[in-house]
Design brief:
The complex is a heterodimer of chains A (231) and B (123). With 231 residues, chain A is mainly alpha-helical. Chain A folds into two domains: 67 residues, no CATH class; 144 residues, Nitrile Hydratase, Chain A. Helices cover 48% and strands 10% of the residues of chain A. Chain A is globular and about 55 Å long. In chain B, helix 1 runs parallel beside helix 3 and helix 2 packs across helix 3. Chain B is globular and about 45 Å long. Classes of the chains: A mainly alpha (231), B mainly alpha (123). Chains A and B meet through helix 1, helix 2, helix 3 and helix 9 of A and strand 2, helix 1, helix 3 and helix 4 of B.
C-alpha cells in the first residue's frame, strides 16, 4: 500500500471528483434537470466499464463468462415482468388506478425485485396522448420491469433527439402520430423511472392476462411502439 | 439456462440485496460489478475472504462517515470495495483505472457533442 502512488482513499476522492466533470449536455426541452445524484449514478456505470476494460486487457476477466453471470440474473427480470403489469392494468380497473397513482407501491405489492430505492411512475397512452421515455443523461431505465435497455435507448442520438423532436424519433421507429396527438417525453433519472402503459389493442376482448401479456412488447412500454391488434 | 447459480458463493454475504432466488440488481452496472467479483473469485485471482474483508472495510468506512446503511447503496460500496481490492492486490494501477474511466467519459462526451449533427438509424 505504502508505495501506491495514490492511496485507496485518494483514489475514491479522485473518482468522485472526476464524476463532477461528466459533461451534461443541457438538452433543450428536457422535462427536468438532472441533479447531482444522476452524475453519481452515471459514474458508477463508467467506473464499472473502466474496471471491466482494464481487467479484460490483462486477461483477468472474460466478457463472455461475465455476460453469462449477468444473463442468469437478467432472466429474473425482463420485459415479461412489465408485460404482466400492463396486461393486468387492462383488465383490472382498480389495479390500473393504483398503478397510475403509485406504481412503485404496486410493484412492491407484486413483489417485483429490484424496485427498492427508485421511484416508478406509470403514464398511460390514449388516442389523445402518446408518452415516450428517455434518459437524456445516461440510460436510467425501469430495469426490474423491462430488463436491460435496448441498444438504441442508450444511443446518444436517441437520448438527444427524443426531447428535441419526439415525433421525428417515433417516425424512425415506424410510428407516425396524428398532429392532434399530444406527445409527452419523460426524462428518467437515477431516482425516477417511467413505465408507459400502452393502449390495449382492439379485438382483444376475452383474452386472459397471460394472452394479453404476450401481446405487450418491450418497446411499447418505453413508448417507442403502439401495439397492433392481432385480430 | 444454467441450473446452478453462478453467484452462489457470494449469495450469503450480509446485506446483499436478494430475493429467494438470489441477488437482485436495480441497474445493469450492478450486475456487471457483481459478475466481476464472481469471476475473480472463480479464477482464484482473489479469495472469498479477501473480498469479504474489502467489502466490510468499505461498508464500515461508509458507516463511519455517517451513512445510514439501508442496503440501497450496497452496490456503490461494492464497486468502491472492488476498486480498492484490485489496487491493493496490484491487479491494476489506479492511474489505469482513472485514465480508462476518463477515456470512456471523453468518448461519451465526444459522441454527445456530435450527436446533433448526425442522423442515426434507430432500427
Amino acid at each position: 500500500m505504502a508505495d501506491d502512488k495514490i492511496s485507496r482513499r485518494e483514489f475514491i476522492n479522485k473518482s468522485s471528483a472526476a464524476a463532477g466533470t461528466v459533461a451534461v449536455g443541457a438538452v433543450a426541452g428536457s422535462a427536468h434537470a438532472h441533479d447531482a445524484a444522476d452524475y453519481a449514478q452515471s459514474d458508477y456505470s463508467v467506473r464499472t466499464k473502466a474496471l471491466i476494460s482494464v481487467l479484460s486487457k490483462k486477461g483477468l476477466v472474460n466478457q463472455a463468462s461475465m455476460d453469462a453471470v449477468v444473463d442468469f440474473y437478467e432472466n429474473k427480470v425482463g420485459p415479461h415482468i412489465g408485460a404482466r403489469v400492463i396486461a393486468r392494468s387492462w383488465v383490472d380497473a382498480d389495479y390500473r388506478e393504483r398503478l397510475l397513482a403509485d406504481a412503485r407501491a404496486v410493484a412492491r405489492e407484486d413483489d417485483l425485485t429490484g424496485v427498492q430505492g427508485t421511484d416508478l411512475i406509470a403514464v398511460e397512452n390514449s388516442s389523445a396522448v402518446h408518452n415516450l421515455v428517455v434518459c437524456t443523461l445516461c440510460s436510467c431505465y425501469p430495469w426490474p420491469l423491462l430488463g436491460l435497455p435496448p441498444a438504441w435507448y442508450k444511443d446518444t442520438a436517441y437520448r438527444a433527439q427524443s426531447v428535441i423532436d419526439p415525433r421525428g424519433v417515433l417516425q424512425k421507429f415506424g410510428l407516425t402520430l396524428d398532429d392532434d396527438v399530444e406527445v409527452r417525453v419523460w426524462d428518467s433519472t437515477a431516482e425516477v423511472r417511467y413505465l408507459v402503459i400502452p393502449e390495449r389493442p382492439a379485438g382483444t376482448d376475452g383474452l386472459s392476462i397471460d394472452e394479453l401479456a404476450a401481446l405487450v412488447t418491450r418497446d411499447s412500454m418505453i413508448g417507442a411502439e403502439r401495439l397492433q391488434s392481432n385480430a | 439456462m444454467t441450473t446452478t447459480n453462478p453467484g452462489q458463493a457470494l449469495a450469503d454475504l450480509p446485506l446483499l440485496p436478494r430475493d429467494n432466488d438470489g441477488p437482485v440488481f436495480s441497474e445493469a452496472w450492478q450486475a456487471n460489478a457483481f459478475a466481476i467479483v464472481v469471476e475473480l473469485i472463480e479464477s482464484h485471482t482473489i479469495s472469498r475472504d479477501e473480498w469479504a474483508l474489502s467489502l466490510s472495510t468499505t461498508l464500515k468506512d461508509a458507516e463511519a462517515r455517517g451513512e445510514v446503511n439501508t442496503g440501497e447503496r450496497y452496490y456503490d460500496h461494492w464497486l468502491t470495495a472492488l476498486e480498492a481490492l484490485i489496487i491493493d492486490k496490484k491487479l491494476a494501477d489506479t492511474e489505469d483505472l482513472i485514465a480508462e474511466g476518463q477515456s470512456i467519459r471523453d468518448h461519451d462526451h465526444h459522441r454527445r457533442e456530435g450527436q446533433l449533427h448526425h442522423d442515426h438509424d434507430h432500427s
